[in-house]
Amino acid sequence: MSPNTSTRPSVTDEVVRQANAKINLFLRVLGRRKDEYHEVETLIAPISLADEVTCRKAQKLLLHLDDPSLPAGPDNLVIVAALALAEACGGEGAGADIEVHKRIPVAAGLGGGSADAAAVLSALNELWECNLGADALGAVGAHVGSDVPALLAGRPVVARGRGERLEPAAVPPLSWVIVPFEFRIRTPEAYRWWDDDGAKTGPDPSPVIEAAASGDAERLAGLLFNDLEEPVIRRHPEVGEAKSALVGSGALSALVCGSGPTVAGLVASEEEAGRVASSVPSAIVVTSLG
């Protein structure tokens, strides 16, 4: 036996998942709910930008992050997700050593924390042999965070309610250029700004869903919208400047991602994305996954 054989984990001792960020092709806010959340409609597409999550068997629950600005304790959605799954599996004392390699900017409207939580639910469902189906795992995810069920789906979906009611959406891969910022916006802040400003609910999103399904980037570009965008730009004008910079550099259209502050520009092709990104500081080329 090789000296390293005994230390090499078996397939069931370690599970690795990609935690893909997301873009909202539209985000429609319908109003505040009695539970203090907001009723929304949104078309969510995972993108190629992703964190990497590794879960290993352990005696207790441990979390290792390579971003020291993030909490590693019970406030982290990864821990919330692990505890929720342990309870759903009937093993509240289940342990795991969880390692998260961050690539998605934090509190950027790209769903990084929710993506990590979704990846952990998927990985631990396998590692702990819970054998929960997609619907049961999605129900656990809904208790963890609003975007978690959609990111568990691993494909474009229309999400409604607080994000727990999902409908598959047909969205072929599209090229985007995203511009993140160093400052962060917490999701509850952006929704509070929408309330404070008396902001309006956007139009019927059916044309966006149909245009996205066609894969026609030019047709889709004129239909993208985000109800949280105006309140965010009102408080952070530099976000609006990034939108203008993307369009001025050749993007077909641009909008704020989720609760911001990241801005995403839709472009006609991957080649065009490279040209646009080279003209806009801090820009990153990504692809939405169909």
Note down, in words, how this protein is organized.
The chain is globular, with a radius of gyration of 19 Å. With 290 residues, it is α+β, with helices and mostly antiparallel strands. It has ten helices and eleven strands. The chain has helices at 77-88, 112-127, 134-144, 148-153, 187-197, 206-214, 217-221, 229-235, 237-248, 270-279; strands at residues 14-32, 38-57, 61-65, 96-101, 157-161, 165-168, 174-179, 225-226, 253-256, 263-267, 284-288. 34% of the residues lie in helices and 28% in strands. Residues 1-10 have low confidence and may be disordered. The protein starts with 13 loop residues before the first strand and ends with a strand. Strands 1, 2, 3, 4, 5, 6 and 8 form a seven-stranded mixed sheet that branches. Strands 9-10-7-11 form a four-stranded antiparallel sheet.
